[in-house]
Amino acid sequence: MTYCSKCGSKIESSNEFCPNCGMKVNQTSNKNRNKEKMEGTFERVKSVTDKINTTEIINIFKNSTLSPVSGGKEFVAKTQKTPAIVIMIMLTCLQGILGIWRVNQIVSSVSTIFTNFYRNLSSLAVLFGESSSSYNMDTSTINSMNTAIDKFKYMNTIPYGKIFFGNCELYLVGLLVLFISIYLGISFFSEVKCTAFMVFKAVLISTLPILFCEIISIIFSYFSLNLGIIFVILGVVISITTLVIISKETFQINANLCVLIISIASVISLIAFIIAFSYHTVDVVKAIVYRYGSLLN
């Protein structure tokens, strides 16, 4: 859609003359304006990409993974806005990929999970003095159950897109709630003046150990579910400890107050994460059931 240079009326791109005043459309001028807009957009994108230093980002990941505290303090002190935003986008996408990986792991081992569940029920029955025969399954029952599960996995399509974006949303919810809680806590209960961007960088880089340990957790979960859970807990402990040390030394906050603020903020963030996770899980389950029902019909 273009406009007449004489009367300002709207002119369809296919028209050579203005329908209102009859003036000939200057097609060359329109093409030049479009070309200038495209060139301007390209220059803006190029100016942003020029600010992204790949080597710097790689060093940030390496230092903050191998040395969470010292690498995190360096990140908070030196990193500018553009690299920080790139790091946030990369960590968000990483969480989305890990969510897909975790779901695939659960789906691929769901038969084993059900079998172990009934075996544990049998062990608990014996522990409480009840007969385990009520919970034992013969070979034919296990085979029938595994056949039904395999049929479900074969017929159903996992909504990878919903899982990816849902996990990205979970990460951003936890990150933003933690940032807001800590920033408000420092602003209200401490006399130290710090910028919101500095607090955001401290919170952002402290989430890296959780994601790193989550990768290790998924790998070890193929061998032992309990070992995978241990690595998740380890990642949370490392991240919270890192955040406390970085906040205390960077913002010069009293140690007791720093622990109190971050502990409360972590609990609030965990509650928000659980609420968001429950909604996300329900949506994914509904999508799977709907697709499975559509296939059956």
Automatic annotation (TrEMBL):
Transmembrane intervals: 83-101, 170-190, 202-223, 229-246, 258-279
Keywords from the UniProt entry: Membrane, Transmembrane, Transmembrane helix
Pfam families the record matches: Zn_ribbon_3
The keyword Magnesium is annotated on this UniProt entry: no
Domain Putative zinc-ribbon: 1-24
Designated name of the protein: Zinc ribbon domain-containing protein
Taxonomic lineage of the native organism: Bacteria, Bacillati, Bacillota, Clostridia, Eubacteriales
